[in-house]
Specification:
This protein is mostly helical and about 90 residues long. It has 4 helices and no strands.
Amino acid sequence: MAAQAVSRSDTALGAHYRRMRAKLGPSQAIVATAHKIARIVYHMLKEKTPYQAMEAAEYDAQMRIRAIKNLERKARRLGLQIVPAPT
């Protein structure tokens, strides 16, 4: 229920749900989001740390950086080089 409720929020968990929904479909996205919430709660209880909320924009920026690094790594394996487009 928490994963379904967070799907409509403007948080990192909401952005995660929307990314998973595009990739897996709505029902599997809810399961993936619930699993992520469970991992967060487990880490908080185990390490005795407070929850650090992340905005959806910050999460999207983090995912963009990760995607760029993955593309660069794949290009290197193929013997290519990625050149950013001029803005």
